[in-house]
Recover the amino acids of this structure.
């Protein structure tokens, strides 16, 4: 139970950070060339100013599911640490 708990604790967090950082690098590249990033289509728009849409608003199932799995991983890890070994 301890190994599964640690896996559920770490993997979703890494996936969330990886997805967010990938998108952030796209935004940074777009802003460097003077554009405005279109968050809905994940494209750089050189003509129009695009509104900011938070990552949580665009991917609610991914973010909430990842956090739920991480919390489940914390509980499984705690149970695995407190249960006596056989």
């Amino acid at each position: 139970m301890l190994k599964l708990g640690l896996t559920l604790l770490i993997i979703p967090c890494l996936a969330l950070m990886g997805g967010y950082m990938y998108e952030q690098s796209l935004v940074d590249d777009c802003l460097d060339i003077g554009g405005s990033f279109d968050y809905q289509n994940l494209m750089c728009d050189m003509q129009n100013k695009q509104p900011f849409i938070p990552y949580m608003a665009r991917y609610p199932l991914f973010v909430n599911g990842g956090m739920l799995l991480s919390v489940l991983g914390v509980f499984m890890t705690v149970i695995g640490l407190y249960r006596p070994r056989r």
In short: The chain has a mean pLDDT of 93. Residues 2-82 form one domain. Helices lie at 2-32, 55-58, 60-82.
